[in-house]
Specification:
CATH class of the largest domain: Mainly Alpha
Strand content: under 5%
Order of helices and strands: EEEHHHHHHHHHHHHHHHHHH
Strand order of the largest sheet: 1-2-3
Largest sheet: 3 strands, antiparallel
CATH topology of the largest domain: Growth Hormone, Chain: A
Length: about 475
């Protein structure tokens, strides 16, 4: 049964059955982000050890990352709709439970195929967990300025996860082996489940909407086909052309069906007529394209060329995480002062400059130069992550909050999947080392700068309140 609740001006939330402290709700949402992002950051650090255990090359290691990214991107649209239709708290709690099961499968995987399968299971959980988390914030904090501050804290958990994951994960890998890193998220996921079930008020908006099976199937084929084409292109076979053609046909059919369904569509196409929403989608995809490609390749190069240990590589990634965490906690206040355009376009451009600095290194060295690039990238992410999510969910009414949250996460994970796949392919085709890393980072940096230009053109120079339009 859905509980009725009323959000009030000062952010206090009251429920029909019992009071729910907003701090407890926020802690539950932040735990959800930590579960998903610690898992991702630790796996990037563990790829070298996993490859050694299973005698796997770059291609299967990419699948350890991209199985998660691909399934997550494919199911996000359904995850957001399920949250809106059947309950956002329910979707969040089920997602946390599934991520717990998937992490246990990964921890005890006997070979790399089972590990990849476990990563796919965790992706199913994440597809429910993250959109519902963002939608809950949109519903519980309806006032844009308050929501902006909350989203800054929520987004900062990404930086906190990237700080915890490499440091603690590196120590776990060296002391207990790579399997232990998957157990790291299990207690956090259990805590997120319990706290959400006890403190988060249920909300749903099922009126005049239902599960869009044709749209979901075609959307999944389109998203999966594009990502699979990017991943398979590294093998030099013609399979990627078939995947690309299938994706294009599915996309055209998807757009035709969604246009006919109008407001009842899985993805109401009218959302993309909102300039700020479309700009946030494009900038988010560009951001994760370069960032995820970098955090996949740089630890590999550091460990294989510079012979750093997993713990040393993790510590070397700390600056980007700490700067990201420190800045993003203040992003809500900074948006009110400097405006959404400066934060989103400027932040994305800073990430691009950071990747170009990494491209100027020789296989990630000298370390000081690489750290300059990482710090600049962390600064950019801290500035733009919260505002981009805020613009996306603030541009629609609460009844579409799950859908908007799903779409911004589709953009995030599609960019991540393509970044790992395409930049990994460039790295591999140029035989790795400093030449491969330089070319990959140049491409990633240029994509970031293009995203910054799109954000500058689409997002007005004002705070989130003026960006918000009810749909």
């Amino acid at each position: 049964m859905v509980r009725r609740f009323e959000p009030v001006a000062d952010g206090v939330l009251t429920c029909g059955r019992s009071g729910a402290a907003p701090a407890a709700v926020l802690v539950a949402m932040c735990l959800g982000v930590l579960v998903a992002q610690i898992d991702t950051s630790v796996v990037n650090l563990a790829t070298h050890a996993i490859g050694t255990t299973f005698r796997a090359g770059v291609a299967p290691l990419q699948w350890v990352l991209d199985a998660y990214n691909l399934i997550y991107a494919v199911l996000l649209l359904s995850g957001g709709l399920v949250a809106d239709l059947y309950g956002r708290r329910r979707a969040f709690a089920i997602g946390a439970a599934i991520m717990t099961m998937g992490s246990l499968v990964c921890a005890f995987a006997p070979h790399i195929g089972v590990l990849i399968g476990g990563r796919a299971i965790t992706a199913v959980g994440a597809a429910l967990l993250l959109p519902s988390s963002l939608a809950i914030i949109r519903v519980v904090w309806p006032e844009p300025a308050a929501r902006g501050r909350i989203l800054g804290i929520w987004a900062s958990c990404n930086g906190l996860a990237f700080a915890i994951g490499p440091t603690l994960g590196g120590q776990l890998i060296e002391t207990f082996g790579w399997r232990s890193v998957f157990l790291l998220v299990v207690p956090l996921a259990i805590a997120a489940f319990i706290l959400a079930w006890l403190t988060v008020p249920e909300s749903a908006d099922p009126e005049e909407r239902h599960f869009d099976l044709p749209g979901q199937v075609l959307g999944a084929i389109a998203l999966g086909g594009f990502a699979l084409a990017a991943i398979a292109s590294q093998d030099g076979t013609r399979e990627w052309t078939f995947a690309l053609l299938l994706a294009l046909l599915a996309l055209l059919s998807f757009l035709q069906i969604e246009r006919r369904r109008g407001a009842a569509a899985l993805v109401p196409l009218g959302l993309f007529r909102i300039r700020a929403f479309s700009g946030a989608i494009a900038a988010t995809a560009a951001m994760t394209f370069g960032i995820y490609g970098m955090i996949f390749l740089l630890p590999l190069v550091w460990q294989s060329v510079m012979h750093l240990s997993p713990q040393e590589a993790g510590l070397a990634l700390m600056p980007i995480s700490l700067v990201f965490f420190a800045i993003s906690t203040q992003s809500g206040k900074l948006v009110q002062r400097f405006g959404a355009r400066a934060m989103t376009a400027g932040g994305t451009a800073l990430i691009g400059c950071g990747l170009l600095i990494v491209a100027a290194t020789r296989a990630g060295g000298p370390m000081l130069l690489a750290q300059c690039g990482l710090v600049l990238a962390g600064l950019g992410m801290g500035l733009n992550s919260g505002p981009l999510f805020g613009i996306a969910v603030g541009s629609v009414g609460r009844e579409r909050s799950g859908t908007a949250a799903a779409l911004i996460n589709v953009a995030r994970m599609t960019g991540a999947t393509l970044g790992v796949a395409l930049l990994g392919t460039v790295f591999r085709l140029l035989h790795g080392g400093h030449v491969g890393l330089r070319a990959a980072m140049l491409i990633g940096g240029l994509v970031q700068l293009c995203g910054a230009l799109i954000a500058f053109a689409a997002i007005r120079q004002d705070g989130p309140a003026a960006q918000t339009r009810s749909r």
